[in-house]
Specification:
Length: about 60
C-alpha cells in the first residue's frame, strides 16, 4: 500500500529537514506526489504542518 500525499507530508514535516510548508511542498512535488497544493490547502492541514516544521526544523536545509 502506498502512502498518501497528506501522510507523506506529515512524515516529512516530522523529519526536521524542512523549515516551512513551501519547502515541504517542493519536496512532495519532487517525489511526484499527487495534488499537493489542493490537499495541503485547507488551513487546518497547512497550519498544522507549518507548526510541525517550525518545531522540528534543525536549521540545515536538506535536499
Amino acid at each position: 500500500m502506498t502512502t498518501s500525499t497528506v501522510e507523506r507530508a506529515y512524515a516529512l514535516a516530522r523529519s526536521g529537514k524542512y523549515a516551512n510548508i513551501k519547502a515541504l511542498k517542493e519536496k512532495l512535488k519532487a517525489e511526484n506526489c499527487r495534488a499537493v497544493d489542493a490537499l495541503l490547502a485547507p488551513r487546518s492541514i497547512s497550519g498544522h504542518l507549518s507548526a510541525i516544521c517550525a518545531a522540528t526544523f534543525k536549521g540545515v536545509l536538506v535536499d
